[in-house]
Backbone:
């Protein structure tokens, strides 16, 4: 099927709140928003999330570098593609005041649907499907699925609609995984966002718990058992003399 590409101005979704993912009456203000991408970090490892989003530590390894290349290709905001009755939007900024999350979707596919929702600047009704790009392959853990679901909840709040499904594209297998946003997955995202805000407010970094997954973590060398009782920044400052090679 032919694909057309064109440059465009920023894609506006509006700011109507649907309440479809409400966690109660409380709404977060913009200054309190946390990174949407942190949902995946938090589900993978709470300590990793805290080191990145509270301690502001980040190290590149081969896995994260390859992942950044994939996301760079997906986040080409200057292009949108029309494929028959679908519209592909890249690098779309989304937010949720109910969850207190904000970030970018790699790709959002809008498909014409008679039971869909209006879309700014477009005729007819549309149904949104977020697509998240990942470097590796499908996992048993719901961490990737939770990040994708968080994107859907943000879109639901902005578009006043219900989004039933999305896709994870894995680079290692060059395949898509179909993800259904059922009540169980939605609840996991809501609970994760609540815990993230609670830890962030306390500036609390959970203690290290070594698992097999640690081997692929880019922060593995920083995530030391000795540092679990203090901040990573304080630990590094305390041990800087160990690496001082200045001649006496």
Residues:
């Amino acid at each position: 099927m032919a694909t057309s590409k064109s440059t465009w101005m920023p894609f506006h979704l509006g700011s109507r709140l649907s309440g479809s993912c409400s966690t109660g009456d409380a709404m977060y203000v913009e200054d309190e928003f946390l990174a949407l991408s942190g949902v995946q970090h938090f589900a993978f490892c709470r300590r990793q999330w805290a080191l990145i989003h509270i301690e502001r530590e980040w190290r590149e390894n081969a896995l994260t570098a390859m992942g950044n290349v994939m996301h760079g290709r997906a986040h080409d905001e200057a292009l949108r593609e029309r494929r028959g009755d679908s519209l592909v939007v890249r690098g779309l900024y989304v937010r949720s005041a109910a969850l207190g999350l904000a970030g970018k979707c790699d790709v959002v596919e809008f498909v014409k649907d008679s039971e869909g929702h209006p879309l700014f600047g477009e005729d007819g009704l549309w149904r949104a499907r977020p697509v998240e790009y990942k470097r590796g392959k499908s996992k048993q853990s719901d961490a990737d699925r939770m990040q994708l679901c968080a994107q859907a909840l943000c879109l639901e709040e902005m578009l006043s609609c219900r989004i039933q499904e999305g896709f994870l594209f894995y680079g290692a297998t060059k395949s898509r995984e179909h993800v259904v946003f059922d009540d169980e997955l939605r609840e996991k995202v809501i609970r994760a966002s609540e815990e993230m805000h609670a830890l962030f407010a306390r500036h609390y970094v959970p203690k290290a718990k070594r698992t097999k997954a640690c081997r692929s973590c880019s922060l593995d060398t920083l995530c030391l058992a000795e540092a679990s009782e203090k901040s990573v920044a304080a630990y590094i400052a305390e041990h800087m003399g160990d690496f001082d090679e200045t001649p006496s």
